[in-house]
Design brief:
Layout (H helix, E strand, L loop, with lengths): L4 E9 L8 H20 L3 E6 L8 E8 L2 H8 L10 H4 E9 L1
Antiparallel strand pairs: 1-3, 1-4, 2-3
């Protein structure tokens, strides 16, 4: 049986994340959103958004990617993938494969 493969990415706040000023947070969020828009336009990213309701706000976001190759590349090569480098100082990523 053939299945379509997707990757679910969870964005988790690092316990050692630095405190950012509001200006730094806004700049990081703008870079993050621009990067996600680019991946969506290229057909790599199917959906992304914040996770709401967590009282401690450890779980920050969810990303759904087509296939399984790009998310692994993104984690292994953050600068080559266009990921804003400071995001790795604030968030860690957990990836899960999903079959439909």
């Amino acid at each position: 049986m053939d299945f379509d493969r997707f990757t679910i990415g969870l964005l988790i706040l690092r316990t050692d994340a630095p405190k950012l000023s509001e200006e730094e947070e806004n700049a990081l969020q703008d870079a993050h959103m621009a990067h996600l828009a680019k991946l969506h336009d290229e057909g790599i990213l199917l959906a992304a958004g914040p996770l709401l309701g967590s009282s401690d706000r450890d779980l920050r976001g969810l990303e759904i990617y087509k296939g399984t190759q790009w998310p692994r590349f993104r984690l292994e090569n953050p600068l080559r993938s266009g990921l804003a480098e400071p995001l790795h100082y604030v968030l860690r990523f957990r990836l899960c494969e999903y079959l439909v």
